[in-house]
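Recall that a protein's primary structure is simply its ordered list of amino acids. Everything else, from secondary elements to tertiary packing, is in principle encoded there. The following example makes that idea concrete.
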Amino acid sequence: MEVLAGTPCTKENGVMDITLRREIEELRGACIAQIRARYREVFEEEPRSKHREQLLRRLVWRLQAVAEGGLSEAARQRAYGIADETDLRVLPPRGFVVNPTPGEPLVGRSRPHVDRRIPLPGAILKREYNGSAITVKVLMDGFEHQGRRYGSLSAIASAVTGTRWNGLAFFGLTRVRGAALKKGRP
């Protein structure tokens, strides 16, 4: 019996079913729209990827698994055993805040989009501009300056100066902290 290299084998005859082989060859020559349509039929959901090769590999795997029975029971049990022994999360999620400011209740997550250059909620940013002190409190969902809430530091910098500013640059948050410490600057 001749088996081609890289060709999955069935348990019955050692060779892939000829109709399955033809369908896979047709899919290899198909355009992305046809692959996506077949993906919808097989998985009964919209494909999340637009990458042709990734969709093709996943589709071919599923077609073979359906035709040939998928994983053996021993392999399935081994996979479940590995999953049970594994810690799924070692570190807290990115942006997790334990207690941003004293006196406030514990919070599970910070802002949806976290810029690492902006300090944690509760921090106070100070800047001297034209002889007056500008103080900004970092909030979970924005910033507070003189009792008003702002969505960005740029909005505060523009309100203070009357011209457009990059808020991070205005408050001195653009330089990389590690590089500054290496050069001996605070």
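Residues 18-83 form one domain. The radius of gyration is 29 Å.
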